[in-house]
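Weekly puzzle thread! Below is a chain. First person to post its structure in token form gets bragging rights.
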Amino acid sequence: MTATSDLAPRRLRDIFGTFASGLTVITSSTPQGPAGFTCQSFASLSLEPALVTFSPARTSSTWPALRNAGSFTVNILPAEHQHLAGQFARSGTDKFAGVSHTSSPLGNPILDDALAWIDCELHAEYDGGDHTIVVASVRHLSARTDAEPLLFFKGRYAGLSQARLLEAAS
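Winning reply:
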């Protein structure tokens, strides 16, 4: 393996893409109606207190609406919801068109059949270059155990078994 100091955005994306991540849709109820966006930069941060983190792009037109709402739900997507990852990643469309959901205890959309959901309140925000680092306090959560997660690996959507095949083919 040869080290490189090439930090061009394309090179960074390729290298960072070798780290498989789960996919989430962050949703909220806003005065304009339900809003949400796809986010792969979600992680648990702390157990005591219960905190999570994610990082929306500074160019996001959806994050300001969720921030202003003050609470939101992290919907962790199962492998069969690849279409929702794509739908909520698009700008300028009705992201909730045809999407079934219920309300969380904080009143935010929980996508039907989400692998897990985590109801949160905004705790803090930090500068993260071309992204904002969001820290959120966990208030309510639930998960199912009968499905595998949707992953993003090497620029593609994959389930666990597909990610193994993609890696073997590389």
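Puzzle host: Confirmed. Bonus trivia for everyone else. The CA atoms of residues 26 and 74 lie 5 Å apart.
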